[in-house]
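Hey L., structure's done. Input below.
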Amino acid sequence: MKRYRDMRGPMPETPVRPLPWIASLPEGGTEAMRAELVESAQAARAAQGIDTATPVAQVLVEWRHTAEIYADPELLAELTRDRDGDAGPVPCPRPGDGQEQDPFR
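Output:
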């Protein structure tokens, strides 16, 4: 992961590297993602002495997964349908699932 030493100044209107998956976000998703990125960057800046972009990268990973869900109509329908009662047990994630992913792909 790249480290960004200087996180001062306003967040750019558009990301430095294009994020092609943004097109799959629902209406208002891009604005919500930008607000969350600003908030996480400000929190990282407030934690003086921490020289990492991990909080910002995590926000990008989470929003990319949101875009993946919206890009798949069947998955979106399954995850947004009304449920009757308990949906059952949820398996534990396998080691390495969803970890260390490049949020810019």
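The helical segments are 29-46, 54-71, 73-80. The mean pLDDT is 79.

-- N.
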